[in-house]
Every structure is written in C-alpha cells, then in structure tokens.
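Hi support team,

I submitted a single chain yesterday and got back a structure, but I'm not sure I'm reading the token output correctly. Could someone confirm the output below corresponds to the sequence I sent? I've pasted both exactly as they appear in my results page.

Thanks,
R.
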Amino acid sequence: MAYLTVLRIPGAAGFFATTALGRLGVSMYGLSVILAAASGYDDYLRAGLVGGAFAASEAVGGPVVGRFVDRAGQRRALPLIAVAHLAALTGLVTVLATAAPVWLAALVAVAAGASVPQLGALAAARWSHLLHGDPRIDTAFSLESLANSAAFIAGPLAASGAVALLTPTAGVAAACVLVVGATLGLSAQRATMPAPQEPKGERPVWRTVAALGLANVLLGLLFGTTQLAVTALAREQDRVALAGVYYLTMSVGSLVASALYGTVRWTVPPWARLAGAGLLATIGAALMHLEPFTGLFVIGLGVGPVIILIGTLLEARVPKSRLTQAFALMSALSAAGIALSGLAGGAAVQAHGHTGGFALIIAYSCGLVLLPLLLRRTA
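Hi R., thanks for writing in. Yes, this is the structure output for that exact sequence:
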C-alpha cells in the first residue's frame, strides 16, 4: 500500500504520529477558547473578542514562527517555541478561570495564538527533506491531508467533551498538553530534521507563492461561506441540527478524495490536476442547488486534492530556506479567507438566504479552476 511505503521510511512514522496528535490539539483550540471565555464571562461578545484575538494572532504569528524555525533549525527552535507556548497557555487558562478583565484575557490570547507551533508546516518540511524530487511526495502530502481533516473533525468534539465532563478550561488545557507534548516529542526526533539554511542567491518565487496563497484564500472563503450557507439552509428547513451534518458531508468527501489521491502514481502535470480538482468542486457547488448532500460531498472530493496539490507545488518551488515559513503562510491565508467570508458570505446569505451563499461558493470554486493557468506560467 502506498501509505505504508512512505511510513516505512526511517523516522517518518514517528514524526507523522507525533504531529498528528499535536494537530488534534491545535484543532481543539478555537472552540475550547470560546467555551472557556463564554463560561468565565457569561458574555458571548467578550468570548468572541478573546477567541478572535487568539485566532488572528495565530494567523499573523504562524509565518513568523515558521521563519524562525527555518533560520534556527527545528532542533534549536522547537524547545523554545514549546516553552513560550506553554507559558502563554498557562496564563490564558489562569485569566479565563478567574474571569480577569477582558482586555487582559485578549492580550494573553494574542501571545498564546502567536506562539502556536506550526506542526503541519514542520511535518511538511520533514517530508520535503526525505522525499524532495521523489514522486512519493504526493502520497506523503495526501497522508498529511488525511491527518489534518481527521483532526479538525475530532478536535471540536474532543473540546466540547472535555468541557462538558470536566471544567470550562479543560479543553484549552488538554489541547495545550497535546500541542506542547508533540512539539517536544518532535524536537527529540533528530534523524528526520532538515538542516537550517540561510538563503543564498535563490530565485524569487513570489508569483508561485502569490498564486498558491490566493488559492488558500479562496479555500478559506469557500469553507467559511459554506458554514454560513448550510446554517441558513438548515434554519430555513426548520432543522437546525442538520447544519453540522451538511458541513460534515463535505469533510467526508475531502477525506475520501485525499485517501484515494495518495494511492495513484500521477502522470498528469500538477497544474492540470489542480484545474481538474477545482472543476470537480465547481460541479459540486452547482449540484448544491439540486441536492445539498450530494453537492457538498462532491465539493469535498475536489477540495481534498486541491489542498494536497498546493502542498506539492509549494514544496517543489519554494527554496528550502523558506519552506516552513511558506507552509505556515498558506495556513494563515486560509484562516484569513475564513475570516473574510463573514463579510461577503454574511451579506449574501442575509440578503438572499442560502442560495446567495451557494452562488458565492460557485464563484470561489471557479477561481480554483482559473488559478492553474497562472501557476502554469510560473513553471
């Protein structure tokens, strides 16, 4: 099996399992911080402020953390990042448990978010170190996509369960243990660490990074708008509980496509595959008007390969000295797209109901079809 082939590479299974556990913790943060703040302040406005401060600082700080790792190397950087993040999260748990002034909680949340270890980017850099120029890199990134999708399905469930069974801050604390533990565990696995590199006369790749960054923004817009649109659809049907089921259907489609993608030895150029995946997502977006569950599943079938191909193209074209930073930047841009979706998506859904959101999803999917034309010119 293709996945077993890459996991049998010496050291690969160890860092993959370590980062997979850590990403479960990262996926718990968003809901855990909101739940803890809402309980401490009994006020959703203040809870949203604290949660927004955490998310925004993570998006801004991610590329900075990635740049630090590229320059210092994982061996030196990871223990420092782990200690900084542990200190910030300990402070956040303390202020939320004591209902400290909201400005203080937001300030500590900024420090906690900005210091989140970029575990996905760290894993991608290790895969690149082991498989650069090897066609099995597609399989490795498919495996990463599967782990990431699984984490963001299980994470919110784990967060809400920890809060329901233990204390309001239990979700944040559990997530911190997973993230810091994974970071320290990764720092001990030195055989697969890429060496730190100083940039020396490398060709600029800004057009490639910009194109792939725009693809991540479009993905974020698509994800955020889909959440709004399916919520509106479920409310219009007077079946609010269906909103989560609708969105989960897209996640299942993405998991299925990612699993299948990694088993194929591709001969089609990456830019053509990216266009095909975008077209599949566009077909799914159009189908949502006829049958939402089918459409969402097909969107997921397209989105899974898009995420993998962004990683593949980035790994192939970005210099090693900037790779961790580049992967962290992609995550930040996806988060920015989700944040921006609240403006355009919210306005469209407010004015036209779920059909307004569906129309925007089609537009964003079409963008994923057109972007490969730009990528081909950067080859």
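A quick pointer for reading it: The domain at 2-187 is CATH 1.20.1250.20 (Growth Hormone; Chain: A;). Let us know if anything else looks off.

Best,
Support desk
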